[in-house]
# Entry
Amino acid sequence: MRKLVCLILLMALCPLGSHAYVGAGPVKNIYDPGKLKPRDSVLKVKVGDVAPDFTLPSLLGTPVSLSDYRAKRNVVISFVPAAFTPVCSQQWPGYNLVEELIRERDGVVLGITVDNLPALYAWTAEMGGVWFPVLSDFYPHGRVAELYGVLRSDGTSERAVFLIDKEGVIRYIDVHDINAKPELEQLILELDKLEK
Amino acid sequence: MRIDLRVLSVAMIAILLFAGTAFGKMPGKGDTFPDVELEVPKDAGSVEYLGLEEAEGTFRISDIGSNFVLVQFFSVYCPHCQKEAPDMNEFRNRIGEQGLGDKLKIICVGAGNNAFEVKVFREKYDMTLPLFTDAEFVLYDAVGKPGTPSYFLVKNRRGEPPVVVYSKAGRFFDIDAFLKELRQAAGL
# Structure
């Protein structure tokens, strides 16, 4: 009975998507685009494919290629729609939280958005920095997002996670509802399935 | 579908009770604080710290064995909460050093966070305080969805919902100044 009461309470008190700002509160300059179409693109790759290679400018000051990690690291590619938006401003601090868990699994994150480097610099600084390379898919606009089939019709990317093993093979894809965070626990479970 | 009238009435009463705070208003000084049920922590240290009589099931803030309870709302995803985590341990130590360990207890509630997320947070920052999940935002909504971190100092009244004596949205940066503010608000 208690569960049912809770359910009714939840339905009454928390309309879906009303918690976008939790955790992002102290990150002040947040633009809330409102609730978006959950998914607005068609994937061009699938699990088992060799991940298309790419090279993008990064906040490290040097370009980063996916192939830099071949035979060295399992790569978590995290496309997020845009800098300074609510959900993304929680998702990447979440990767900071599990930095050790990802490293222990020989993993690295590559964070990618279609924003330019100055915007990414300001945004990641406001989040207190991130430990992983942040890549700009700004020009030609969204080329890498388009390569993977996660570029939306408005020019932003999906909120998508691709897990690439050391052989360069795509092992897991989550094109997530753009309005919600992917589960960290799921990511760690998927990393556990790969050989170290 | 047959609707259970008892369930519906309990839910409606709860909605009315929370209505003042559920839509954006943080309870302030003198307001009652929602005395929701929380799961009794699994570790004996936290059960002892909170002075709980039962080592399993659920408890309410009004069951905690201290006159005052500081309720922190955090999120494992919030960069400020991550930065503040080590200070929370230090804050607990400072309370003990000032001889207030039995009078003021702290609980930390992870707004929207599930058990996995809270566990990772606890281990990463060696948190010594009891951390609770509020994965479905039940308590968080009931206090008006404040930013994280946020703090409510409540006066505990055994058998009755606690009363707020102090609230603060945002991180504290100075442990001693924050404790001084809390002592003044509580008259400790």
